[in-house]
Amino acid sequence: MSPSERPDGSIRLSRAVAIAVAIIVAVAACMKPIASAPATAENGQQIFRFDTFGDEQFWTDTLHLERVVQQAVDPTTALTVGLKVDMDALPAAVVEGIKQGQVDLKSPATTVTLLKLNAVVGVKGTVETIGGKDTLTRLGITCALCHSTVDDAFAKGIGHRKDGWPNHDLNVGAIVALSPAVTAAQKAVYNSWGPGMYDPRYNLDGKSTPLAIPPAYGLAAIANETVTAEGPISYWNAYVAVTQMHGHGNFADRRIGVNIRQEPDLVTSKLAALRVYQHSLAAPAPPSGSFDAVAALRGRSTFNANCIRCHVGASLTDNNAGVLHAPSETGMDGRYAMRTATKMHRTTPLRALWQHAPYFHDGSAKTLMDVVDHYNTVRKLGLTDVQKRELVEYLKSL
Fold first, then answer.
1. Sequence-ordered strand ranges (E) for 250-311
2. 224 Cβ neighbours under 8 A, 6+ residues apart
3. What average pLDDT does range 6-32 have in this prediction?
4. Residues 358 and 196: beta-carbon distance below 8 Å
5. What average pLDDT does range 345-362 have in this prediction?
6. Residue 298 — φ and ψ, nearest 5°?
7. Long-range contacts for 87-92 (Cβ within 8 Å, ≥24 apart)?
8. Cβ of 297: how many Cβ atoms within 10 Å?
9. 329 contacts: CB under 8 Å, gap ≥ 6
């Protein structure tokens, strides 16, 4: 049916067209940053996955990464630096085309198409048709860039989203180093971090002691989200959104000399909903058969005899009671802590340890046995090889 003209000259759409328009408007609304969101998990999920907080002002206007992507980042390259593709955002025809080898994974134009489909996890692109060609004009990032991955259901790096899981394949430094606006000295630092590592203070103090990207699940019962316990989860969300993602918003902390105010504030009103969603993300249970249950039971006794003083209660951290520890107390490298407000470390809440190696704030323990060996030496526990293996099995069960 074609539209009909009313007596006043306006156009009346057919019912079918009106419904189609309504659907398009609704979908478009879901893809836009949320200006102010009620504190629901549904809104928080949209913010976590799709809201850039206006950080295109940095990734596009300053770093010009939209040009780099448009010209040189094909899907194969994107997957190599750890970017993930949400297969559920892909039309069936695209999925089938990839299966049949009909989609060119060596063409940057394919990356632009994936961004147009909102299929690159944690990356938001604005794609416009210019001169008959899809052109990436704006680029930003979301929380999901570092704190989501996929299950590789389709292929390595392509699958269903797993929100809250740290993306330890992601090489943030290498991505930033692609920018033509970054100096040679900065590129060297960024490229030194490697996959799964990121320094959330380098842009503020010029020092580099990168951290392992942490999981964002299992936080509901945790008082302070950060490794140095500077504040609860909304503190860190605001810090990262404004100072690291470079979103358009406000963040101030006199302890570290940061006072950023940008109006309109596109961050603060969304923190409550974001927290609700993150608190809804439970730590994943260990896969069936992934640990020796009998050995783990014995390992629990060893844990209770040697570790429970700090890893206390259901949260397995004494930080919920306000306790902090000097790096020297646990034999940790204290260089990162010295750059923070507390100069101390919290006791890490133990959750889904089977999933997110490497361990310790700086990723210096590659395996759980490395963790046990470290504390056996530093705390002079005197564990036998059998006890250490049993303790590892217990940690794998958490």
1. 251-253, 258-260
2. 230, 231, 232, 319, 346
3. 37
4. yes
5. 97
6. -70, -35
7. 87/119, 87/150, 87/153, 87/154, 87/158, 87/159, 87/160, 88/160, 88/161, 89/117, 89/118, 89/119, 90/114, 90/117, 90/119, 91/117
8. 13
9. none
Beta bridge partners of 125: 139
* Contacts of 96 by beta carbon, 8 Å cutoff, 6+ apart: none
Two tokens at 22?
């309504």
Number of Cβ within 10 Å of residue 203's Cβ equals 13
The torsion region of residue 135 among left (phi > 0), alpha (psi -120 to 50) and beta comes to: beta
Q: Is the pLDDT of residue 106 over 50?
A: yes
Q: How far apart are CA 220 and CA 30, in angstroms?
A: 26
60 close to 151: Cβ distance less than 8 angstroms: no
pLDDT value for 22: 37
- What structural domains does the chain harbor? 28-279 (no CATH), 293-397 (1.10.760.10)
Could you identify the residue written with the tokens 């507390």? 342
How many whole angstroms separate alpha carbon 264 and alpha carbon 248? 7
The pTM (predicted TM-score) of the whole model is: 0.89
What are the phi and psi torsion angles at 108 (to 5°)? -55, -25
Nearest residue to 212 via CA among 170, 244, 242, 245: 170
Task: Look at residue 260 and give its three-state secondary structure.
Answer: strand
Instruction: Give the C-alpha separation, 146 to 215, whole Å.
Output: 9
Per-residue 3-state assignment (H helix, E strand, C coil) for 319-371:
HHHCCCECHHHCCCCCCCHHHCCCCCECCCCCCCCCCCCCECCCCCECCHHHH
Tokens describing residue 257:
């000399």
Confidence of residue 1 (pLDDT cuts 50, 70, 90): very low
Residue-wise DSSP of 85-150: EEGGGS-HHHHHHHHTT-S-TT-HHHHHHHHHTT-BTTEEEEEEEETTEEEEEEEEE-THHHHEEE
Tell me the Cα Rg of the chain: 24
Q: 393 in helix, strand or coil?
A: helix
Question: What's the rounded Cα separation, in Å, for the pair 324 and 342?
Answer: 9
CB-CB contact of 176 with 139 (8 Å): no
β pairing state of 85-86 and 4-5: unpaired
Tokens found for residue 182 = 């970054």
Angle at 254 between CA 251 and CA 258, to 5 degrees: 45
